[in-house]
Amino acid sequence: MVRAIISPSVLASDFGQLTAECKRMIKNGAEWLHMDVMDGHFVPNITMGAPILSCVSKGIPDIFMDCHMMVAEPEKWVNDIADAGGALYCFHLEATTDPLALINAIHTRNMKAGVAISPDTPSTAITDEVANEADMLLVMTVYPGRGGQKFLDRCVPKVAELRARFPEKDIEVDGGVGPKTIDVCANAGSNVIVAGTAIFNAPNPGEVIQLLKNAVDTAQAKLAPK
Ligand code: DX5
Ligand code: ZN
């Protein structure tokens, strides 16, 4: 049985006080922080890179930075993100031609490796070989590039398909996830939950984090083999 992990997306935070915002989330029960790295190539927007992540990890030495690399040529940034204190390096399958070599490079730098798929990429594009080497699979439930978008229900069957193939793997969902959409995600088998606006804009982020966690725990108890 996989466990519930909540990873608030800092894209919805006040970037001017990023370290304080991460501390606020940890105080509210977040286990991971989801750091959205965008390069203006793989997606139109630019957010932050290794120098900023490095400041955050200096300010919070035991932070778990779940780095979502929405970048072209993800091979280029493995060393910089590792040096900046990244704990998990999640690249987009669409952005690389050699996912196995990339996973290997990420592991060599002692980071966990994640493989993300955008809404138009089928779950079958993640081969057994790649998934077995990866530590986490990320099913995007919006098109990568912006926070606050509407959750795409049509991505949910991909979560179920991956959960059926990989019962013990961490499966993350990202995009438009919040109290209204968590149940379909959790019931399909995702256990790592990213939420930006739903957590950061809530009057009580701790309550939302707990609600998301409970939904995963409840679903996992049902999904677990008897
Ligand atoms: C979208 C990012 C997401 C985003 C999620 O490109 O990958 O992590 O911040 O934000 P919400 O939860 O607001 O959809
Ligand atoms: Zn993300």
UniProtKB/TrEMBL annotation:
GO terms for molecular function: D-ribulose-phosphate 3-epimerase activity; metal ion binding. Pfam families: Ribul_P_3_epim (PF00834). It catalyses: D-ribulose 5-phosphate = D-xylulose 5-phosphate. Substrate binds at S9, H68, G145, R146, G147, G148, G176, G196, T197. This is Ribulose-phosphate 3-epimerase. It comes from Gymnopus androsaceus JB14. The active site is at D36 (proton acceptor), D174 (proton donor). NCBIfam families: PRK05581.1-4. Gene3D superfamilies: Aldolase class I (3.20.20.70). Pathway: Carbohydrate degradation; pentose phosphate pathway; D-xylulose 5-phosphate from D-ribulose 5-phosphate (non-oxidative stage): step 1/1. A divalent metal cation binds at H34, D36, H68, D174. It is an enzyme of class 5 (isomerase). Belongs to the ribulose-phosphate 3-epimerase family. Binds 1 divalent metal cation per subunit. The keyword Membrane does not apply. CDD domains: RPE. The keyword Isomerase applies. The lineage of its organism: Eukaryota, Fungi, Dikarya, Basidiomycota, Agaricomycotina.
